[in-house]
Amino acid sequence: MFLKKTRFLLSTVIFDLKGEPILFQKPKYSQMASEIFYKTLKIEGKFEKNNIDDFLQQQLKEQELSKIKRKEFLIIGTFLSNVGKSSLLNALLGRNVAETSNYPGKTRSLDFYNLGQSKVIVDSPGYGFAKGNKKDIQHWGYLMQYYIKNSPFLKQSYVLIDSEHGFKDVDAMTLQLMQSLEKPFTIVFTKCDKISKIDELVQKSRENLEKHIYSSQVLHFTSVRNRTGLVELQQSIAFYCQ
Ligand SMILES: Nc1nc2c(ncn2[C@@H]2O[C@H](COP(=O)(O)OP(=O)(O)OP(=O)(O)O)[C@@H](O)[C@H]2O)c(=O)[nH]1
Ligand SMILES: [Mg+2]
After folding, report:
1. Are 190 and 223 in contact, with CB atoms under 8 Å apart?
2. Which residue, by CA, sits nearest to atom 7 of ligand 1?
3. What SS3 class is residue 114?
């Protein structure tokens, strides 16, 4: 009942939940995307709970001096399935800057990649619970919550869901946390090359969105293997960079 209409735009589905959907797939945003991506890149560093605050404070000072508004885009997703955060970041940036692995737990800090003009993509460790080193995972959970709550620059979070595994309770919890903090997010399905039934995935996602009344209007379907949905994701970031 909340989903008034669904529009298929190549690899992006727009659910019109409330009001008008965001239309960022315009030539203007693809032009902006080509100006933002594949150009300059500065790795600002890897940060953890003990130094993230100092780093954000320093960025506030730099913003005051430069007068350029800093905008951060967080790539976030569960630990459970090794969802492909760093792989997606590499594919978006067009270079292998973040280390990837077949095993979960590779990215262990918040890693900041500045694309120039204070537009920053942030890679993150996986959230959720798993066998293995629970202390690490709990620590990453706190780090992420702290960052999401406290970064004055966080413009949009891209919440990655493995399309083979679908929505998990831990994802629903993260989305609810973001909703309660009024932090905007976009849902991105990864590894779409592994599934044949996109329609089923769309239907299940609709049901989940209806159940939880998430305010997100856009679902992205991506694969770094066959490059599905990467351009659309770049356009989305360009849209929020305005
Ligand atoms: N088939 C397929 N495999 C993918 C895709 N994206 C990532 N992978 C694989 O998924 C595995 C995990 O990728 P990562 O990018 O390291 O995942 P991550 O979410 O950053 O994992 P952590 O840093 O450990 O939390 C790697 O073996 C990738 O090759 C995709 O689009 N399709
Ligand atoms: Mg990673």
Report:
1. yes
2. 84
3. strand
Using alpha carbons only, give the angle 89, 92, 93 rounded to the nearest 5 degrees: 85
The response to whether residue 229 sits with its C-beta less than 6 Å from ligand 1 reads no
Give CATH superfamily name and number for 6-241.
P-loop containing nucleotide triphosphate hydrolases (3.40.50.300)
Q: Which two tokens stand for residue 189?
A: 């399905």
**Rounded Cα gap, residues 102 and 83, in angstroms:** 10
Q: Which ligand 1 atom lies nearest to the CA of residue 223? A: 31
From residue 181, how far is each of 48, 77, 94, 159, 209 by CA, in Å?
21, 18, 32, 15, 18
For every residue of 12-35, DSSP letters joined together read EEEE--SSSPP---SHHHHHHHHH
Measured distance CA(54)–CA(90) in Å, rounded: 27
Mean pLDDT by 10 residues, the chain (242 residues): 50 66 78 88 95 97 96 90 92 95 90 95 81 66 90 96 86 84 91 87 79 71 92 92 89
